[in-house]
Amino acid sequence: MKKRFFVLAALVGMSAGAMAQKKGFDYTFYGQVRTDVFYNSRSNSETVDGLFYMYPKDVNPDADGNDLNGKANNGFYVLYTRLGVDVKGPMLGKIKTSAKVEADFRGSGTSYSTVRIRHAYFNLAWNGSALLVGQTWHPLYGDVAPDILNLNMGAPYQPFSRAPQIRYKFNTKHFGLTAAAIGQSQYLSVGPSSDVPGTTSTVKSQSFLKNSLVPEFYLGLDYKATGLIAGVGAHLSSMTPRTQSVYNDKTYEVNERVTSVSAEAHVKYVHGLWLMAAKSVLGSNLTQTSTVGGYGITATDARTGEQEYTPLRVSHTWVNVVYGRKWRGGIFGGYLKNLGAKENVSGLIGTGTNIDQLTTATAELTYNLPNWKFGAEYSWIAAWYGNNDAKGKVIDTHQVDNHRIVLTALFQF
């Protein structure tokens, strides 16, 4: 009996200590249970076993001329079920403190149904300023994104990435300034998979940015009014594709770098039951944001095999219009164009470098109740594949289409 009393007293003491530590905190727990069923008329470039969809694969004929990528496929998953907590912390002097931790079961790579961090950051706010440290949406994703059922959220037209970052925001009544230094964690840049000069086989890795010793940088300016947000942004990245080269059976230390600058403009307007949004990006080597592109080899040192590079430029634009509340209909259109490089290249490193154009047209209808959403979405996606010319542009193209249907049921709490 005495032993039970002491155990109970210890538990009460521990609980009292925990309550004392939590003084001044406020927690809001939230989450969702989401199911997705989808159908594709052909094989596609995708992740999460087709849940995160990009674009149709090129024709791949067998010995009889049959397209091996022409087979239809489908899937049924609950991997984007998620849990999260928003935390309001005690004042730090005159600074408001808060934090967010959110996870889902998407996993990474080819490992699914495993817990993955989506957001994990703390935020300090004072006098119109806010400093965020941790992982959240990449600034190129920003505050303007399509309102659609597809889990790719408009990729590859919309930059899609969550990344560790240090982000500062300053807001006045109508204007907002954003500056950020950004790393990479789950969404990675593409680079050469070999240290042999001239290789064009690729791999996704943190090492390309980590070895450069320079994070990505973003600077943006927004104008805000009732129902309206419009702004522009600029992005800089500087990567190190290789730190060594194997050339003529000898290994050399090399100092390689590819630096690229991208720009974007966005607008979103909400009025009554209407939502209209659009974004246009002139991208340069933005493979870490779930889009196509990369860079090309412009020169190779005759003795060491050290290479020089130039980024590929890709233009991508999307428009989204949504109307309704209980019954909500929406359309989405996206267009992407490979603009090639400014210099002649001897090889290309990246994703989708043999795609000249991509276009998507989507229509959806959702039925919305408190805490519930049921929806259906149809998408037509076309890709134009071909051969690369001297500057990496794609010529002699042919068209490949995919038809995609998504059915979604969502319970939010």
Keywords:
mainly beta, 16-stranded antiparallel barrel, 413 residues, globular, 26 strands, 3-stranded antiparallel sheet, signal, Porin, Outer membrane protein, disordered N terminus
Main sheet strand line-up? 1-5-6-7-8-9-10-13-14-17-18-21-22-24-25-26
Number of strands: 26
C-alpha end-to-end distance? 43 Å
Write down the overall mean pLDDT. Answer: 93
CATH arch. level architecture: Beta Barrel
Unreliable parts: 1-20
Q: What overall form do the CA principal axes indicate?
A: globular
- Give me the CATH superfamily: Porin
Structural classification: mainly beta
For this structure, the CATH topology is: Porin
- So what's the CATH class? Mainly Beta
Helix content: under 10%
Strand content: over 45%
Largest sheet: 16 strands, antiparallel, barrel
Assembly state: single chain
DSSP summary: helix tally: 2
Q: What would you report as the Rg, rounded to the nearest angstrom?
A: 24 Å
Order of helices and strands: HEEEEEEEEEEEEHEEEEEEEEEEEEEE
Structurally, the number of domains stands at 1
Protein name: Outer membrane protein
Keywords: Signal
Signal peptide: 1-20
Please provide a brief summary of the model.
The protein has 413 residues and is mainly beta. Helix content is 6%, strand content 58%. The strands form 5 sheets. It has a 16-stranded antiparallel barrel with strand order 1-5-6-7-8-9-10-13-14-17-18-21-22-24-25-26. Strands 20-19-23 form a 3-stranded antiparallel beta sheet, with no helix packed on it.
